[in-house]
Here is the input.
Amino acid sequence: MIFVDSNMWCYYFDQRLPEHGYVREPMREIIKTDEIACNTIIVIEVAHYLVRHFPAKAALRKIEYFVNLENMKIVDFDRQMMMKALDSLVEYAYTHGLGGRDATVIATLKKLRVKKLLSHDNIFKRLAAKLEIEVVDPIPVKP
Here is the structure.
């Protein structure tokens, strides 16, 4: 199972972005072959991006495709998940700069025991060893 972060979904759905070319094929492969983890916070974040950057009809088509992927498990963000996210936020915000939304990703990784994360977010790269996860980023580092 792999957790796909919101930035990867946004890059995948928006071919106008320079990152799209780097994530298109890895995302297609994941969608075809892997079980994908997500949470309701990420769904809302991706939907918000799509609504802001695409006409309504196109945004809705992409959102429906996204939320109806048969191989994606979407974890409800309930009180228990909130408490787990808050624990991570307090633990890593001061020392590593973790933000609230990223804390929800960590809570989901822990709940589902997911060890692989597709993300372009540097905070996860900095925390990978502590969280005992593999962070995959198909986008090359700029020189």
